[in-house]
Each structure stands twice: as C-alpha cells, then as structure tokens.
Amino acid sequence: MVKEKKVIITNKTGLHARPAAQFVQKAGKYDSKIEILFEEKEVNAKSIMGVMSLGVGRDDEIIVRAEGEDAEAAVKELVDFIEIEMTKEDE
C-alpha cells in the first residue's frame, strides 16, 4: 500500500537540524519505505543527511510518501509532527 500527503512547512526554521532529526527518528520507527518529495528531489525520510540536503524552508510544500504495511500510520504521524509539533517549537 502506498500512502502520500502534501504538507506545507509552517515553522520558522523549516525542516533543518533539530526538526529534521526528530522527523527522521519518527520515520525510523516504521517498516515502510518513507520518502520526502520536494521540488524535483526525492529522499529517504529515514536519512538525516537526505532530509537536510533538501533545504526545505518555511512555506515550502513537501509530499510525505510511504509504501508498506504501516504506510498510513507513518504518513499520519509524520504529517501531524510537521503541522502540530514543529509549529509549537516557535512559541
């Protein structure tokens, strides 16, 4: 099963350093193959170097895609992390 969802990065720093590390840690809990698609690039969401190499900033739109048994749960948790937890860091 493949599941994907578009999400806009709304926190101040984007998907860099600490948020990227937390994102990769959450992605690593799942068996599914998880990728982030941004512009013309596609990277493994379980790779900190891959995620940071995208240079995703505030107001950028990414697609979180997962393929596997737990794809739906993976996409839901990762999108919730971006939309809810990452924005709390700005407060």
Could you please describe the fold and organization of this structure?
Helices cover 38% and strands 26% of the residues. The relative contact order is 0.31. It contains three helices and four strands; from the N terminus they run βαββαβα. It has a single domain (2-88), classed as Histidine-containing Protein, Chain: A (2-Layer Sandwich). The chain is of the alpha+beta class and 91 residues long. The protein has a four-stranded antiparallel beta sheet with strand order 1-4-2-3, with helices on one face. The longest helix is centred in the last third of the chain and has 18 residues, at 71-88. Its main location: cytoplasm. This is Phosphocarrier protein HPr. It is found in: Cytoplasm.
